Amino acid sequence: MAKKITKPVNKKPVKAAGPSKIKVAVNFLKSNQFKYTLGAFLLLFSGYLAVAFTSYGFSGAVDQSKLDLPILDFLDRSVQVQNFAGKGGAYLAEQFINLGFGFPSFFFILIFVVAALNLFGYKEIRFLKTFLFSVLWMLWTSIALALLLNVTSSDSFLYVGGMYGFIFSSVLTSFLGTIGATLILVFLLFVLLIVTFRQFLPWFTKVIAKKDKEPATAEQLAEEALAVAEQEALLQTEDPAISKRITEEDKVKVVVDPDFHDDDDFEIENTVSKKDVELSIEDMLFDQVPEVESPKPKTKVKEPELQVAEKVADELADDDVVAAMGDYDPTLDLSSYKYPTIDLLDDHASGNAEVSNEELISNKNKIVETLRHYKIEITKIRATIGPTITLYEIVPAPGIRIAKIKNLEDDIALSLSALGIRIIAPIPGRGTIGIEVPNQKPEIVSMRSIIGSKKFQESTYELPIALGKTISNETFMVDLAKMPHILVAGATGQGKSVGLNAIITSLLYKKHPSQLKFVLVDPKKVELNLYSSLEKHFLAKMPDEEDAIITDIQKVKNTLNSVNIEMDSRYDLLKKAHVRNIIEYNTKFIGRRLNPEKGHRYLPYIVVVVDEFADLIMTAGKEVELPIARIAQLARAVGIHMIIATQRPSINIITGVIKANFPTRIAFKVASMIDSRTILDTPGANQLIGKGDMLVSTGSTMTRVQCAFVDTPEVERICEFVAEQRGYPTAFLLPDYVGDTDGGSPDVDLKNRDEMFDDAARLIVSNQVGSTSMIQRKFSIGYNRAGRLMDQLEAAGIVGPSEGSKARQVLIQDEYSLEQLLNGFK
Ligand SMILES: Nc1ncnc2c1ncn2[C@@H]1O[C@H](COP(=O)(O)OP(=O)(O)OP(=O)(O)O)[C@@H](O)[C@H]1O
Known about the structure:
CATH superfamily of the largest domain: P-loop containing nucleotide triphosphate hydrolases
Low-confidence stretches: 1-18, 225-238, 248-299, 317-331, 740-745
Binding site for ATP: 490-497
Keywords: ATP-binding, Cell cycle, Cell division, Cell membrane, Chromosome partition, DNA-binding, Membrane, Nucleotide-binding, Transmembrane, Transmembrane helix
Largest sheet: 10 strands, mixed
Shape: elongated
Mean pLDDT: 78
Strand content: 5-15%
Main location: membrane
Helix content: 40-55%
GO cellular component, one term: plasma membrane
Radius of gyration: 37 Å
Number of domains: 4
Bound molecules: adenosine-5'-triphosphate
Subcellular location: Cell membrane
């Protein structure tokens, strides 16, 4: 038998040909050319339909007889129509209106316009939502109109509700009668209003509640008000910030069998048969005793109602203001500089990050239940819904110890089966205890919404930094000029880099290149490299450096020392100008009251950003820590600020010196409570949920903030936008710094002693401490001058040689010997 040879079939080329064609087609459909063409067509078509439909309302009766003609006759030139949109318009209007859905067909126009806008990239109005609601409303109005017209008159030239409206309404009336059909339509209207307009239900309940009260006499009202006032006074005065109260009215229907219950505490006076009983979720969840109308448990603890705080929607700035951001006139060197525009940022909001009532009630019940289990009663509970977490504030019954609640942190976390629960007991200044519970559907806070917020746009901060949104959805902003330095820490992957980008971008959105310079230190070489294109606008570097982003450890040391020199020279300038800080100095300089020929210059703010601070400390230790500490201690008044970020928050990296000088600290999620203590001096950062969830401590207050999200492409777009504009010829040049010059007594001419020489010598001897910074502090002079004084004191034999970071040895023991020595110089 001949063997059947099966040839291996090479399917590859066939496969490759198929998808590639599809791909081309998909790419074409996705291309902007296609989208804009289709969008333009839809928009024009909508306009045409609008004219045709409107005109049909007036001329439809006349045109209709012509529309009944066979199509060829209708197209004949001798046949004229009155519709402004011509025969085409008349035909379309007839199809859509008379033979379709009646005048509600105008909804089609809405659908086409929204589709066109979406194709043009305007996504504020969602197409799918519009489509769905428009179709539903169109059907409803079409049937309602048909029904109404059937009832009132039926001798019109057209079906106002269209053919379909007529058919549907006829079917409805034949089944249910006119009254039944009307009732169904009223019911559907109610449902449509609820699903379409979010505000409808609250408004409706308010109206109903008002109606209920109407028959009350003035006396009754007064009594009622008094009773409410008394009850409120017992707990807390009414808070206008409360948006809704979730109480027993939030009912669900369940079927319970009362016979099944054999709870001793629960006595049923009337015999109740198996039936539907309405009861609140609260009761189901933790009393497990159905509350039926007449039989009541003998002892029933009053349930605390859940108040949900008003969601403060952050006011967006007027479009004009946002647009005006691009036109802000800097008045200085680059007068044509345009600020980055808001459309460079993306909107990352998912739009479905609502916290449902069920989630709120279920969390509230679990909290109350857990606390009750430990015999902790509460009188009030209030929820504030944030972007990623909800804060439940509770007021415990009098006599409950706060520490007891704090100790239940793990139990509450367990009962809510959620990570990231944090208990704040008590919330400073509020007298309540806070329990923060992560939302099931967290919301991404886009940088776009933060930058576009009125608060940011109208901020008058010197160095405004918009970090994100607080638990109450407010934009959280700080002024770096007041901070004055920030320490950012968090385990890897928790949002530190995004946080740094948010800080830098907020400054880029508000500052002119002449007002701000960044010194960017990035040992990891990849994080801040994005900003290298800003060199001629916003970056500062040492004169002979090639790259403006500093990555090499030796260059980091030199640059930090150079920033120190810049700081000292700025102090000298301030002193010469008789001002105390950079704002006063620059105001004087802009007012032409300081002479540039005497060395005065406009001082831009300098923000030193150090990423991966831990790496620097590990490799360079004190050589880096000391200049950083010195900048941190002294640079605030001269407009030099630091932001240092680290992944490893251990105490050998975030030392006491660093901590003492960085009062503002931002902690993203860290691995352990010890790490949290190292950064914030308190636990808490270990309980965060990651992805930009952070705690911001400004020394006195601690705020939980959801960091604004800004993605790398957005940062790239902003940098590109800035870099494309005319910049300075070079980066801002920092003073030159030549490595260490240690060893040997400096060459000093004691004949040209500083005029403060005698005073400095007396200070050193009386304190018996040879410290340059002490001279600096006591006499309010710059580091350079204090250093020169120290060299002269060394040459005069008053202090010993430099001993690195330690104070010098004082060689003169008493003031008498010193005076003799000083007399010898005269
Ligand atoms: N504010 C935020 N909102 C939403 N998601 C965020 C936010 N911040 C960070 N993320 C998510 O977490 C990821 C990691 O963030 P990021 O790169 O900033 O971490 P990191 O702490 O800098 O990590 P590493 O230290 O390794 O560089 C991001 O890619 C993003 O998906």
